[in-house]
Design a protein that fits this description.
Number of strands: 0
Order of helices and strands: HHHHHH
CATH architecture: Up-down Bundle
Largest sheet: none
Pfam family, one: PMEI
Keywords: Disulfide bond, Signal
Strand content: under 5%
Protein name: Pectinesterase inhibitor domain-containing protein
Distance between the termini: 45 Å
InterPro entries: Invertase/methylesterase_inhib, PCW_Enzyme_Inhibitor, Pectinesterase_inhib_dom
Shape: elongated
CATH class: Mainly Alpha
Family: Belongs to the PMEI family.
Structural class: mainly alpha
Length: about 160
């Protein structure tokens, strides 16, 4: 009987250690919980548990949305859109660089690049305010800032 109890205790101990190691690697965590735009984050990353995979998926979605916003800006009358076309180009460059930073585990640079994207999107909006004109791509621009904010949140899970 003593051997059976010991085997059960050992099995239980091993199972507990496996559970704890999963928790230490982010398994079981909701990477979107606490994000400023949690519903949007969930729509991008789903139930992904790896912060690296989730961050990469979020940046890829951000690249897609930025390309769409750039295309929308390019269709505006030329006198209204040069700032936005330029800043979206810069944002795309920063996003590609952020993926490189993520792959090399340089989270500081990853965060800087994503923060730059948010600032660039704000510059696009500001250019319309300075002209005293309505901002026709406001929804796309806000979506870019929201996704970037979520990516910065997910990056907090990367050690």
């Amino acid at each position: 009987m003593g051997v059976t109890v010991n085997k059960q205790l050992i099995s239980l101990s091993l199972l507990f250690l496996v559970f704890l190691s999963g928790q230490a690697h982010g398994q079981g965590l909701d990477l979107c919980a606490g994000a400023n735009y949690a519903a949007l984050s969930h729509s991008v990353v789903g139930r992904e548990k790896s912060p690296y995979v989730a961050a990469e998926a979020t940046v890829n979605r951000l690249i897609s949305e930025t390309k769409q916003a750039k295309s929308s800006a390019a269709r505006l009358p030329h006198k209204d859109s040069p700032t936005c076309t330029y800043v979206y180009d810069e944002a795309l460059y920063s996003l590609k660089e952020s993926l490189r930073s993520l792959k090399s585990h340089d989270i500081g640079s990853f965060n800087v690049k994503l923060s730059a994207v948010m600032s660039l999107a704000e510059a696009c909006k500001d250019s319309f305010e300075e002209m005293g004109k309505p901002f026709p791509i406001a929804k796309q621009n806000e979506l870019i800032k929201h996704i970037a904010s979520n990516a910065l949140h997910i990056a907090t899970f990367i050690s």
